[in-house]
Amino acid sequence: MKILRDTWLIFQRSVGITLHNPAWILIGAFQPLLFLVLFGPLLKPLAGTRGFPSGGAFNVFVPGLLVQTALFGTAFVGFGLIAEVRYGVIERMRVTPVNRVALLLGRALRDILVLLIQSTLLTLAAIPFGLRLNGLGMLVVVGLLVLMGLLMVCLSYAAGLWLRSEDALAPLVNTLTMPLLLLSGILLPLSLAPDWLRVLARANPLSYTVDAARALFNEHFTDVSIPQALGILTVLALLAVVGTSRFFSRTTA
Amino acid sequence: MIETRGLRRTFRSRRSEVVAVDGVDLRVEAGEVFGFLGPNGAGKTTTLRMLATLLPPTGGDAWVAGCDLRREPGRVRERIGYVAQGGATDPTVRGRDELVLQGRLYGLSKAEAQRRTSELLAILELQGCADRPIGTYSGGQRRRLDLALGLVFQPRLVFLDEPTTGLDPQGRARMWDEVRRLRDDGTTIFLTTHYLEEADALCDRLAIMDHGKIVAEGTADDLKRQIAGDLVILGINGEPQAAHALLAHEPFVREASCEDGTVRLYVEHGEAAMPAILRALDSAGLELRTISLSRPSLDDVFLRQTGRSLRDAA
């Protein structure tokens, strides 16, 4: 299949560019690590209060932190793409018979790989704090992170191709990610929130993802949030891939 | 190899519509070096980008490498190489890696792509820097790598957008050699330039473009002859006015003027006209002091067609 071959080629090239500066992978993991070490302990005394989900402070906080990493680790990949457009690399590749979807997917898979490396580091670092893991749950969490990463990466690339300017992309990303973060229950569970805030959060796909990740970490495998999150993310990610690959074939770099 | 009919491209900005390419009719034969000459903003790059499938035309038709550009851009891509104006490389990537990848994007196997890469690196003398990041290359090396990227799958048709802009004289001479070598191998080359010397030195045929339109087309010699003609300057002892009056009516003289003892004649074929001029003056008993023949430059052609000098326009 041409699309698989081309995706693999673009993926290899993109990984090579990332490995040129592997420090960035660690730098990307640094912020969530700070949250883990400097914010996580604040939740310990809260874990007993009424309304706080069961499972213990870190089994509630770390799943959210992984979703946060998937949000902020991917939202800025559009910057790299703007640089590639400016170098003329995208245009050069568009003159070749390369599959248009592969131009997007090869890069997106690199970004998802980076995200999974960061998530693994973060999860391992949380074990000494008392995080408990389970095999099946982790497997599905990886699935959630891949889907969410794919969605966010596509959105960031589409925004980058549309705006063509780092100066415009930065405020856009900041403006959009902040409400997504606050309305997802990542920092504090939404079970603590007043009703109106909880209603508002239902409109945020991320809140389902956080709920599902928490259920998976705490072995609540029948929780309705798990199929909800998987379904919502699959549909959104597919739409994002289709829409953004059109951008890749049409854009006049 | 290329044929266009009424090719047109407009860009909409917020308030107005800008016509970048305004009805271009072209024919490029297989095996020739065809040049697009014109100032910046004339529409050269826009035309090239349309022919290379990067930009959909807003009007007209085109056939590139035997395929209909509008109906089957995918098949056009399989048949052309394209070297963009500003280059197309990431400074952190190594030249060899990028060439192998480019070959594979065109469908070559890994072994084929590697073999072809080594071959091109040798031809373009890039072996020394092939395994360094492209950011460390000199301007000439980077431009030769751009060229290699466009040639990696041995296309029969290559588009070169201002291949020598920004290069030093050495780098330019080097690039000219490569273009000639390609032509000798039978590759059709379509290049744009705003250097007159380049169009003159490289192109079998060329078209002059200004404000989105082709204002003249032909071989460099044709263009110079058709439009400006050759210039013969005669120094006459005694009565230059008589010489002027005598020669102005000869059928091969297009324009004649007389100033300060010299007569200036614009003629169609300078070499053929000179013996006739000499005979006419001799039989009329006029004494010739000096005679010189000068060929018009492409700049004269451009000036005549557009009313401004290419050097000013660029």
Fold topology:
The complex is a heterodimer of chains A (about 250) and B (about 325).
Chain A: H1 2-20, H2 23-43, H3 57-75, H4 77-87, H5 89-95, H6 100-126, H7 135-163, H8 166-182, H9 195-202, H10 205-217, H11 225-250
Helix pairs in contact in A: 1-6, 2-3, 2-6, 3-6, 3-7, 3-10, 4-7, 6-7, 6-11, 7-8, 7-10, 7-11, 10-11
Chain B: E1 2-12, E2 17-28, E3 33-37, H1 44-51, E4 59-64, E5 67-68, H2 73-77, E6 80-83, H3 95-105, H4 110-123, H5 139-151, E7 157-161, H6 169-184, E8 188-193, H7 196-202, E9 205-210, E10 213-218, H8 220-228, E11 230-237, H9 240-248, E12 253-259, E13 262-267, H10 270-283, E14 287-294, H11 298-306, H12 310-313
Parallel strand pairs in B: 3-8, 3-9, 6-7, 7-8
Antiparallel strand pairs in B: 1-2, 1-4, 4-5, 9-10, 11-13, 11-14, 12-13
Which terms summarize this structure?
heterodimer, A: 253 residues, mainly alpha, 78% helix, elongated, B: 314 residues, alpha/beta, Rossmann fold, Alpha-Beta Plaits, 2 domains, 6-stranded mixed β-sheet, 4-stranded antiparallel β-sheet, 38% helix
Structural account:
The complex is a heterodimer of chains A (253) and B (314). Chain A is mainly α and 253 residues long. Chain A contains eleven helices and no strands. Helix content of chain A is 78%, strand content 0%. In chain A, helix 2 runs antiparallel to helix 3, helix 2 packs across helix 6 and helix 7 runs antiparallel to helix 8. The longest helix of chain A has 29 residues. Chain B has 314 residues and is α/β, with parallel strands linked by helices. Chain B folds into two domains: 223 residues, Rossmann fold (3-Layer(aba) Sandwich); 66 residues, 2-Layer Sandwich (Alpha-Beta Plaits), CATH 3.30.70. In chain B, the strands form three sheets. Chain B has a six-stranded mixed sheet with strand order 6-7-8-3-9-10, with helices on both faces. A four-stranded antiparallel sheet of chain B has the order 2-1-4-5. In chain B, strand 9 and strand 10 form a beta hairpin. In chain B, helix 3 crosses helix 4 and helix 8 crosses helix 11. The two termini of chain B are 29 Å apart.
